[in-house]
Amino acid sequence: MTPLDRSDLFRLVYRSRSAIAGNPAEVQRVVDAMVATSRDRNAGAGVTGALLFARLHFVQALEGPSPAVEAIFDRICCDLRHTGIEVVECGPVLEPAFGGGAMSHLVPDADAGALLDRLDSEAECVEAAAAAMKLMLTLLQSAASELKEHETRPSARAS
Amino acid sequence: MRSVYTCLTEAHDHRLILLAAGICVTGVYGSFSVAAQAARSAGRAAWTWGAAAIVASGCTAWATHMVALLAFRPGMPAGFEPTLTALSLLIAIAGIGISIGLVIGQRDRSRRFAAGLALGISIAALHYLGEASYLVAGTVTWDPILVAVSLSASLLMFGTALMVAGERRRPWRRAAAPLLLAGIGILHLGGMAAMTLTFDPERPLPREAVPPEIVAPIVACVSFGLLTLAIIGLRLTLNARAQARRDQERLRELANLAVEGLAVCEGETIKIANRSLEQMSGLGAGALNGRRLSDVLPGLVVSALPEREEREAELVGADGQSVPVRVLRSEVPLGSGLQTVLAVRDQRERLQTESQMRMLAYSDALTGLPNRAHFHDLLARHAASCGERNQPFAVVVLDLDRFKLVNDTLGHGLGDTLLRKTAQRLTAALGGQDVVARLGGDEFAVLQAAPDGPEAVHALAARIIELIDRPFLIDGQLVNVGVSVGAALAPADGGEPGTLLRNADLALYKAKADGKGMFRRFDPTLDARVQARRSLEADLRRAIAVQEFELHYQPLVDARSGRITAAEALVRWRHPERGLIPPADFIPLAEETGLIGPLGQWVLRTACTQAARWPSHIRVAVNLSPTQFRDLRLAETVKAALTASGLAADRLELEITEGVLLADEDRTLATMTRLRAAGVSISMDDFGTGYSSLSYLRRFPFDKIKVDRSFVRQLPGDPESAAIVRAIITMGACLGMTITVEGVETAEQFAFTAASGCHQVQGYHVSRPLPEAEFLSFVDAREAA
């Protein structure tokens, strides 16, 4: 990231509920496929970020040039596999918070259980979203430390 | 035969014989090239060149003959008889002229044969006259058999030569020249061999004989003339050839310049094609020449093409792709005769433009979706095919909630982007066979081709609402709009496209009225309500025309004295079937439909006319709707009503509500000023409801405030209402405005308002609105009391 890029950095974080039908294994397959395509697409557009899928909810952070984020969000909003999209954060930022790499797919570990429960039950979107963001960042950091051992993708998947 | 042989080998000077042959060849070439020039020329020039050619050929024959005679070595003194010599030349020229005259423009064989005979006879005459003119110092004897044989053989050859010269078949034509040459040779040599000269010293040369030494230069001169002519002919020929080449080159360049493809055809084969046609077929230069036409334009038979009539065809290019073309055949005179020329016009660009125009006409430029016209078209076709099989389909119409707000506050550019993104999301909501179109503005419609039932329509609407409800990110801003959806399902809610669209629209209105972001399917009761409204509207129009309205008057009394000071005119509709209809049931409709204009005018005129008959201290108050107040001619209308009725201007009060003040303040103020200048007073009606902005009271010149009945209802028990009413009365008094309290129904209320310092009271406590006659008797009773 050059300083020039950084000045144009835009972040959008949204939360939504999954509308994918099927048992957990099937749902996970669909989500994996979604992550794979979105990772390629987003990387091509210079957009990075993180996607968290837990139980019923998606939380995704998109960071990149404003037009690219807009185009990706347009596509996300045309997708009927999730519903109840709520934007948690939206605006220009100075630093990427979710790393400069490809879209990270975060899978919550046991420690994150409490936060996740809040996310599922919380009526107040802002609080739940803040919680989700915190969770995502925590997961990212732990993934980063794991990355030193494994060279594979920055996910907490192994746990 | 021996004598012929020895005649050639011994009796002649060989060099002169060769010279004779040279002169013959030169002369013949000159004659022919000049004749060709005559053929190329027209008019006088053609005649002149033709004559020159005839003279030249005569001279050629003569000069050849003379040189051959000079080559003859008889071995005794010889000379020429001048008259006969000259005559032989003239005969040669005349004979050739006649011969040519006989064949020109003739295709008949016997005619040509006759011409050949004429030529032969003239050459023979030339020869024998020439020999007759040849004088020697001796005796001349002839071998008559040889003369006869050679003469008849050569004549036959002459005739045959000219006859075959005009034949169609080339080998025959080729035989003409050798035959002619042989004829001449036989004639000459036969004639020479038949002649025997015997030297006789007794017989000297006649005195008139001209010696060869004198004849030779003359012949040389003629020969030189022929040579000159040959050179001229050569130049002419070269020029003509160069001209022809230039013409052809220019023609080819011209053809290459043409945008259309051009091909000169011979039968079904292409002889030459221009560059355009080569490019159209994707072939290199010259690649089309010699190709069969059916390879390039399959299925096209040139001979079957009508001339000067374009035909559609397919041109197969080098890459096997076919190009749509139009082909025109014409017969064009090119060079020696008529040629078949095919003009091939590339239709790709035209077809492309046409399809682009069709697309432009049928699609919405902003979103790329089908437009209204296209949607109607699709719907009509779908309705027709589904109607036959009684298959269900649905028309779903929708428009964005709050779009106008977004457009007005965030700008049209963003509004356009929002519409484009809306189009994308709608497309994402559709089933495979469904079509979405933009009807205009923020109005879209979906043709749901084959819903399984009402649930499927419902599900589609739910998807649409879900997708459009999601936030839109535009230029870094989040924009939230919603969508209202209405649908009509065929055949249940109608089968005709027009009915379905109208019913879907009705459902959409219902969805909007029910709070936006909703889906409503058409419901026949919606239709009934609309029908009822429509019939009421028609009824209202009729009622205005036949004046089924009447005015009732509600008195306003002075709070202290109790005297009637004014009356408010209230319109009533006396319906022939439904009886008296209260204003609340038809005034809103009249406002919506614009019928309030004529109705309001009627009320104004009637109130003025009736009030003019009242005691002069009683004023009349007339309500004006916002629509009426927006009419720029209002002041004139009011003045006209006053003049017509004779009512004094200060007896008319016009009542307006806050709604009037909201729009275009400057115009409202101007209208009010003009009305007050005319002497009419203006009241603010229903004060206390709505915005009740106090700034209005400062800015607009009101004469009177009418306190809304809602404050009076709870008087005098409710301290808050009491405080408000008292405050308004005090404020009005300070601003110098008359205060009227409406809706006073009880004696307590009357007493309270009077005690608070209110000027006028109106309400059921005084009187309900009365028909004019009752009102007047009420006034009389009150005055008498």
Order of helices and strands of chain A: HEHEEHEEHH
Structurally, the number of domains of chain B stands at 4
Overall pLDDT score of chain A: 74
* Structural classification of chain A: alpha+beta
Numbering strands along the chain, what is their spatial order in the largest sheet of chain B? 17-18-20-21-22-23-24-25
So, CATH architecture of the domain at 3-107 in chain A? 2-Layer Sandwich
Total number of β-strand segments of chain A? 5
> What ranges of chain A have pLDDT less than 50 throughout 5 or more consecutive residues?
1-6, 148-159
How does this structure look, described?
- The complex is a heterodimer of chains A (159) and B (785).
- Chain A has 159 residues and is α+β, with helices and mostly antiparallel strands.
- Helices cover 44% and strands 25% of the residues of chain A.
- A five-stranded mixed β-sheet of chain A has the order 4-1-3-2-5, with helices on both faces.
- Chain A is globular.
- Chain A starts with a helix and ends in a 12-residue tail after the last helix.
- Chain B is an alpha/beta fold.
- Chain B folds into four domains: 2-236, no CATH class; 257-351, Beta-Lactamase (2-Layer Sandwich); 363-522, Reverse transcriptase/Diguanylate cyclase domain (Alpha-Beta Plaits, 2-Layer Sandwich); 540-784, TIM Barrel, CATH 3.20.20.
- Chain B has 28 helices and 26 strands.
- Chain B has an eight-stranded mixed beta barrel, surrounded by five helices.
- In chain B, helix 3 (44-71) crosses helix 5 and helix 3 runs antiparallel to helix 8 (212-257).
